[in-house]
Amino acid sequence: MICMSVLDKLFKHRGIIWLLFIVNLLGTIYGYIWYGNQLEFTAANFPLWLLPFVPDSPTASLFFTLALLLMLFPPKSYTGNNVRELIEALAVVTSVKYGIWAVSMIFAGGYQGDILVWKDWMLVISHLGMAVEALIYARFFSFRKMIPLALFWTLANDMLDYSYGIYPWLPSVLNDDVTQVQYFTMALTVFSVIVAWLFSSRQRPVDSIYQFKNRF
Fold this sequence. Notes:
By secondary structure, the protein is mainly alpha-helical.
């Protein structure tokens, strides 16, 4: 219990939150750049309204980055708090989902003969980090009432990905396993929602973030 209390204070420290905000912001920007070729391909071959549904992992990272920003500068209005809770729900559900999904696809490709290079290991570490940090901070969020909306968004994203073929480009050795990948992806959505529910708090904790909001 003492150890958990110390860790809670560490993760709720504004300096740590600022550090994670910067890291996630830079990772989000890099993620959208990473998807540049697929975004260009989608823009040239599909309706433009599908573009926001192409870069799954960077969008998950963007949600988490915004959730951290709203921890640093919490809204004061009822509407603002509802928006905050929706962003938190999307942040946790999608970060857990796409963190696990990306690592699973990389290792599935490796199992089928794809050669893993340093970029693959970089992606493994960064995406595992997405899932872990989302679970850590889920305890400090209060978003349970928004989980149904997060589930709807994520399932809708799945349906668009595999109905239109705009899912993240897979290792070439998995191109004949798209149906299995689709089933795994949708199952992972449900799993991530359950995990988000279990890790979330019913009520937002009162802590030093709000008591000392002007310290940094």
